[in-house]
Design a protein that fits this description.
By secondary structure, the chain is of the alpha+beta class. About 25% of the residues lie in helices and about 35% in strands. The chain has a single domain, classed as Immunoglobulin-like. The chain contains four helices and ten strands, in the order αβαβββββαβαβββ.
Length: about 180
Amino acid sequence: MIFRITLFAALAFTVACGTAKKKETDPTMKVINFQGNVHKPYCGGARPNPDVAAGYYESMKFEKFNILKGKTFTEGMEIYKEITLDVEGNAIFNLPVGDYMIIRADKYLSLEEFMKKNAPMEDKNYKIKGTDCFKTWKNTPEMYFTVENDTSIELRQKAKCWVGTNACLEYVGPPAP
């Protein structure tokens, strides 16, 4: 009886290892190492040293993205894969050879929900550029890329002072001292 259990366990282990190895060596799937970060500028205050004046990069920790197949974005496209970045702004996933787009997951909200999430409450220090700006921003992928081999991809976005990466918001308040 013990021999049968041991034999069965060994057989199950061998099959599992063979399946895992097949998945790793699938020639149609390529490993993608993705990193997302945002450059944040120096926005005023005390006189900075040169390093501080240059701004800094911050990871897009826990940001969610959708991956779409193709070279041209159309509203409502089918999502091929969903990824969530880790605390360091990284994700590792597999894709077959082809052309892809990455778009923030919140851009799949309705236009009203997207605007509500990304437009502040009424504030005299901010100017909202309008519905057309939000519609254009919502329908613009963060990046396009082609997968031919295992590869590393980096998404770098540039933030602006007091509005971050929001393309449809403009700070009109007083300048920093």
